[in-house]
Specification:
Shape: globular
Number of domains: 3
Radius of gyration: 24 Å
Oligomer: single chain
């Protein structure tokens, strides 16, 4: 795992000192080595976190055997040994290193730009051909690894994190993206291809950018929607065997490492599945990591400990206080570079910090909820698809809005604007964020922009159920631009690599074409995934309510974090930022402190937005 950045400008707008600034901003992503490359208006920097082949020979930028191509690479290619063998057999390539970077580069040289279809891994990379001046920038299928790029007036800059591009802000223009602010208030994150700046985009997942110094072209090589087939797998026995085989293959791939590794273990279905398979494959106890928050309501540490004891892992549990967690609040703005509201980033940073004291690489269970229907939002999608609910939802919403807080929340879910915006609305209200209408009320007129997201899937070869559509929406947006962003920034803050076995593209393709009846059966969510897990860990360990990996934010905002409300939701700060209407903020604060605790995430959104605006 590493950090990379670079530029390409035939006008030679950028200089070596710009590369040095970019490199310094990404040192946390790669403390083991740094490297530079310049050639006719192009510049590369690479920060290395050594995971496979720890020798200096594997440092980057790396040159191809023919000397014509150079690469910078962030990520891991899990099937690189198979690709290496193919290159040795078919092309007679002689390798100098034992790592995956050299294999990728030679695969590009010998198989061309579509070589990326051979890869199983997580990656962002740039490859430059010194002979013809072509630059290729790739991002993995699921968007696990980040890649931002700036493009204006023939000048290209790119980086693993937005902060590296901002280091050259004296050479480029950056203007706030109004559409991104609307999206942030609705979703709590900024979805691709947008960033908080108009001139900077996120390279879409499953895509590559081709540049020649004059123009850029973006091509899609893998699209999650296009993996949906006309038929689904309905045979439970066959499906379970296939899923088990895929999971074991994926975890085995991701255990390839030349450094110590472990797993995040929350005690939930996904992390336990990954941990149990890892332990079964390993010839020694796998290191597992859990944090214990001192607020028992949000604590799964006891469950994780029991599972670790059953599996025989080398378990590490760290107790963190409310003070430990609150001290990281200020890190969110700096770490995530743009408005980002997922407060579970705080415990994720804490467990990453603790894990890094023992290992350099971890496995995480992200992806299971989206692939196997683990979220309550999917149940809401099914309810709202009912003809009766569609006919009565408006009067029902009004009636519920006159009742207590729990029913007011239900009223908001019922009150979506159109069928074409229902999926984002369900997500937004499940997370207690702003509806589209509320955003229009809160934003000043000059900041209002239509929220445009892909929420219909009529072009697919089969009709998806409402639950399948909601899950596909999450795969396209929430998973990629919230959850994976959270894990990447939180872990890389401490120079810790995190791999996500459940998001192996083969498992994603399998799950997309698995019958919904095997994802939820007899009221049991994640049904098929659980059947695989129960062969490894007895079911009795999971007979308990599910808790998310979260913090008691509503309580904190009324106590230890109230100073943030006082500062960032003040009239003075609101007028300074100039984006929101203070009258609406005042009403929101009054309702929240009068007992409507479910408004906490809206308070949090405004704090983070104003915090970012006031510091940028």
């Amino acid at each position: 795992m590493c950090g990379l950045a670079g530029y390409y400008s035939k006008e030679k707008v950028f200089t070596k000192s710009d590369l040095e600034k970019m490199s310094a901003s990404l040192v946390h992503r790669g403390p083991d080595a740094d490297g530079f490359f310049e050639h006719e208006g192009l510049g590369f920097i690479h920060r290395r976190l050594s995971i496979i082949d720890l020798s200096e020979a594997a440092n980057q930028p790396m040159f191809s055997a023919d000397g014509n191509h150079v690469i910078i690479f962030n990520g891991e290619i899990y099937n690189y040994l198979e690709i290496r063998a193919k290159l040795e057999t078919e092309k007679g390539v002689k390798f100098k290193t034992n790592g995956d970077t050299e294999v990728i580069l030679e695969a590009f040289v010998h198989y061309g730009e579509t070589f990326v279809n051979m890869l199983n891994g997580m990656y962002a990379m740039a490859i430059y051909n010194q002979l013809n001046g072509e630059l290729f920038i790739y991002r993995d299928r699921m968007g696990i690894k980040p890649l931002y790029y700036y493009w204006q007036d023939g000048n290209l800059a790119f980086a693993s994190e937005l902060k590296a591009i901002k280091t050259v802000s004296d050479k480029i223009s950056l203007n706030i993206n109004k559409a991104a602010i609307n999206e942030f208030l609705h979703l709590g994150y900024i979805p691709e291809p947008h960033s908080i700046y108009n001139e900077v985009k996120k390279l879409p997942s499953g895509s590559y950018l081709k540049a020649d110094g004059k123009s850029i072209k973006i091509k899609k090589y893998w699209n999650v929607n296009e993996q949906v087939k006309s038929n689904v797998l309905t045979d439970e026995t066959q499906a379970k065997e296939q899923l088990k085989e895929l999971l074991f293959s994926s975890v085995r791939y991701r255990m390839i490492s030349d450094v110590p590794y472990g797993t995040f273990l929350s005690g939930g279905i996904d992390s336990t599945t990954v941990t149990a398979i890892s332990q079964q494959i390993s010839d020694q106890p796998v290191k597992t990591f859990t944090i214990r928050l001192d607020d028992a309501k949000f604590n799964e540490a006891d469950h994780a400990k029991k599972i670790a004891e059953y599996l025989g892992t080398d378990h590490h549990e760290y107790t963190v206080t409310e003070k430990d967690a609150i001290e990281l609040v200020d890190e969110i703005t700096d770490r995530y570079d743009e408005p980002y509201a997922d407060s579970s980033a705080i415990p994720t940073m804490l467990v990453s910090k603790m894990a890094r004291q023992n290992v350099t690489m971890t496995l995480s269970g992200d992806g299971g909820d989206e692939l196997f229907f683990g979220y309550g939002a999917y149940q809401w999608a099914k309810r709202l698809d009912s003809s009766l609910v569609k006919a009565l939802r408006k009067p029902a919403a009004f009636g519920f809005s006159q009742m207590n807080n729990r029913f007011k929340r239900i009223a908001r879910v019922f009150d979506y604007e159109t069928e074409s915006t229902k999926k984002s609305h369900i997500f937004s209200q499940e997370q207690y964020f702003f509806t589209r209408q509320q955003i229009r009320d809160f934003l000043k007129p000059e900041w209002r922009e239509e929220i445009k997201l892909k929420e219909t899937f009529s072009e697919l070869p089969r009709d998806l159920t409402a639950m399948e559509q909601q899950a596909l929406f999450d795969l396209n947006y929430y998973l990629k631009d919230d959850l994976l962003v959270k894990v990447d920034r939180a872990s890389m803050k401490y120079s810790l690599e995190t791999r996500v076995p459940v998001l192996d593209y083969r498992i994603v393709e399998f799950a997309l074409n698995l019958s919904p009846d095997l994802k939820i059966k007899d009221g049991q969510t994640k049904y098929l995934l659980k059947q695989v897990l129960y062969d490894l860990v007895p079911k009795k360990y999971f007979d308990r309510p599910k808790w998310g990996f979260s913090v008691p934010l509503a309580k904190w905002l009324k106590s230890n974090l109230k100073y943030l409300v006082d500062e960032y939701l003040s009239q003075e700060m609101t007028e300074k930022c100039g984006v929101l209407n203070y009258a609406e903020i005042e009403k929101l604060k009054k309702s929240f402190f009068a007992g409507e605790d479910n408004l906490y995430n809206r308070i949090w959104l405004i704090i983070l937005l104003h915090k970012w605006l006031s510091s940028s």
